[in-house]
């Protein structure tokens, strides 16, 4: 990958893509938990002039770590596809309940970030799929250090669930842009050959984990 001076060129390229969800260009940002998706999405959103960001952590629940597709479709995808404002309720991980509804206006670009943003059920609606190129063990280690030991049990269950998800429904092979965090910012490669090689990052074929 060649270093990029800023994210401006990537933002311009994404904003120039054809709409994929009604009038919206839906851009998925996927990767392993702890790979830096949220931080990258925030910075890319700034370069896009304040594009909205939908965090899949707000859509998932304790009981449905990956079983949120129907809810996302009904609350967000279908309204935006019709050019209407979406109304959705974010999940409160402390209260273990959905919070007050929020409004998501129709925008030229909407970033959806989280593990599973590039799953097969969402790919037909995406104008682009970005993958955070950090191996899962490093990603999970970062996530565990970030959240502290009190969430170690949750992380044990999460790792099993993420392995199972990507084994059945991988995202990385379908990404058109791979993103790495470097000491000076971000580097990326785009195009049809973006996911070629670097087999160490591949997630399919790992098999189901043992409970």
Descriptors for this entry?
211 residues, alpha/beta, Rossmann fold, 6-stranded mixed β-sheet, two-stranded antiparallel ribbon, 5 helices, 10 strands, 19% strand, disordered C terminus
The sequence of SSEs as H and E is HEHEHEEEEEEHHEE
Strand order of the largest sheet: 2-7-1-8-9-10
Radius of gyration: 17 Å
Sheet-strand content, in percent, reads 15-25%
Number of spatially distinct domains: 1
- The pLDDT mean sits at 87
Kindly report the name of the CATH homologous superfamily. Answer: P-loop containing nucleotide triphosphate hydrolases
Largest sheet: 6 strands, mixed
Q: Give the low-pLDDT segments.
A: 197-211
Distance between the termini: 38 Å
Describe the structure concisely:
The protein has helices at 8-15, 37-47, 69-81, 136-147, 152-168; strands spanning 25-30, 53-55, 86-88, 91-92, 97-98, 102-104, 109-113, 128-132, 177-182, 185-190. It is of the alpha/beta class. Strands 2-7-1-8-9-10 form a six-stranded mixed sheet, covered by helices on one side.
List the helices and strands and how they pair.
Blueprint: H1 8-15, E1 25-30, H2 37-47, E2 53-55, H3 69-81, E3 86-88, E4 91-92, E5 97-98, E6 102-104, E7 109-113, E8 128-132, H4 136-147, H5 152-168, E9 177-182, E10 185-190
Parallel strand pairs: 1-7, 1-8, 2-7, 8-9
Antiparallel strand pairs: 3-6, 4-5, 9-10
């Amino acid at each position: 990958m060649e270093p990029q001076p800023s994210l401006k060129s990537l933002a311009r390229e994404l904003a120039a893509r054809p709409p994929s969800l009604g009038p919206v260009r839906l851009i998925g940002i996927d990767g392993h938990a702890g790979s830096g998706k949220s931080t990258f999405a925030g910075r890319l959103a700034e370069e896009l002039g304040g594009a909205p960001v939908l965090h899949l952590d707000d859509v998932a629940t304790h009981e449905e770590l990956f079983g949120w597709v129907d809810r996302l479709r009904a609350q967000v995808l279908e309204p935006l596809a019709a050019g209407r404002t979406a109304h959705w309720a974010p999940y409160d991980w402390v209260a273990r309940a959905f919070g007050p509804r929020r409004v998501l206006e129709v925008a030229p670009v909407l970033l959806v970030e989280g593990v599973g943003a590039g799953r097969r059920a969402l790919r037909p609606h995406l104008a682009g799929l970005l993958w955070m190129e950090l191996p899962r063990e490093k990603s999970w280690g970062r996530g565990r250090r970030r959240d502290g030991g009190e969430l170690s049990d949750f992380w044990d269950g999460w790792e099993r669930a993420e392995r199972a998800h990507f084994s059945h429904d991988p995202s990385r092979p379908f990404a058109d842009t791979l993103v790495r965090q470097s000491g000076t910012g971000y580097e990326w490669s785009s195009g049809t050959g973006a996911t070629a090689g670097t087999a160490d990052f591949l997630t399919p074929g790992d098999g189901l984990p043992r409970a």
